[in-house]
Specification:
alpha/beta; Rossmann fold
């Protein structure tokens, strides 16, 4: 009988992408299984074109989603982010094998719990996710995060860049994504502006683009003023996540804070430079780019709280530019 798996991760984009190595390993061990993913509507497009996934179920009203999950006749679920919704949906649907981390009260609804101390930040979130597969008899190997872009989406993004910014496939496109929607402390706007100016002055043929959510347009404008007399490009268009993923796929390097688009860039195989606060719950040990070929910068002094606005200023624009040049050298650009 065909195995039917339901994998549950219903939080943010970056969190969902950290599950893709586990999805790859599950498919490698069960090549003929039916693998479904239950994800938030906000994040689901990050795994939309993944060939290891047969079905994506969008998190919705509890009872509406419960009907869909019941109809799926899943025999096994792995819950990577355990909350009341995930625990009760999978229990109420009668899924026989329910695997997940034993860290919250909702673990009483699991029957194959795994004791994990994710808050101790001993390893990467992707590795914690992979560890859950051991309850399925899998000895997981190393797998990189993956996001897939159809050819049609790539061509659409290339056309957009050419028509809007006169950027061609031969250009070196450096994307700076300075926001994080509150998921972590941000590197200061003036530092991003100075870095953009330094890049353009040292490499005048490079195209430097600022990207962000609609709510972050004022931030992008502020950064552009700090880049003067250089003028970075600003992405102002509001676009679906699938289009933005395809746009990231056209860049040469991606620079950002700890945020979902950073993990998209990593999963697309882009080399990245990122800025992380030295705060226990936000450390790159757990939340940084997964795999080699990336540089993360972090203040030297540990910070007890996210409320220290000056904490990230310890990472200077000169430090960031030196790291950027190191990336160029390592990748022979």
């Amino acid at each position: 009988m065909q195995k039917r798996f339901l994998l549950v991760r219903t939080d943010r984009i970056g969190d969902l992408i950290t599950v893709t190595p586990a999805i790859s390993e599950l498919r490698r061990n069960f090549p003929h299984a039916h693998i479904a993913v239950l994800a938030s509507r906000y994040a689901a497009d990050a795994v939309k074109n993944n060939p290891d996934i047969n079905e994506i179920i969008i998190k919705d009203d509890f009872f509406k989603t419960l009907r869909v999950v019941r109809a799926g006749r899943f025999d096994t679920t792995v819950i990577f982010f355990l909350d009341a919704y995930a625990a009760l949906i999978t229990f109420s649907a009668g899924i026989k094998q329910r695997v997940g981390p034993v860290s919250k009260i909702w673990a009483v609804f699991l029957n194959n719990g795994v004791k994990q101390s994710r808050s101790k930040v001993t390893k990467h979130e992707a590795d914690f996710n992979l560890d859950l597969l051991k309850k399925l008899g899998i000895t997981p190997g190393f797998a990189l995060p993956k996001v897939y872009v159809p050819d049609g989406d790539n061509k659409k993004a290339q056309t957009f860049l050419k028509e809007k910014f006169n950027i061609t496939q031969s250009d070196k496109l450096i994307m700076l994504h300075p926001g994080s929607k509150g998921s972590a402390q941000n590197w200061p706007a003036e530092n991003y502006g100075t870095l953009a100016r330094k890049i353009k002055e040292a490499y005048p043929d490079f195209k430097v683009m600022l990207t962000g959510a609609p709510s972050e347009q004022a931030l992008l404008t502020e950064i552009a003023t700090h880049a003067a007399p250089q003028t970075p490009l600003i992405l102002k268009e509001v676009m679906p996540l699938t289009d933005f993923i395809a746009l990231i796929n056209q860049c040469t390097f991606f620079v950002s804070n700890s945020t979902g688009p950073l993990h998209i860039a990593v999963a697309l195989g882009k080399k990245t430079l990122s800025f992380y606060p030295n705060i226990k719950g936000c450390l790159p040990t757990r939340w940084g780019p997964y795999g080699k070929g990336h540089i993360t910068l972090m203040p030297s002094q540990y910070c007890e709280t996210k409320d220290n606005p000056d904490h990230m200023r310890d990472i200077t624009p000169d430090m960031a530019f030196d790291a950027f040049q190191k990336l160029l050298a390592e990748n022979k650009i």
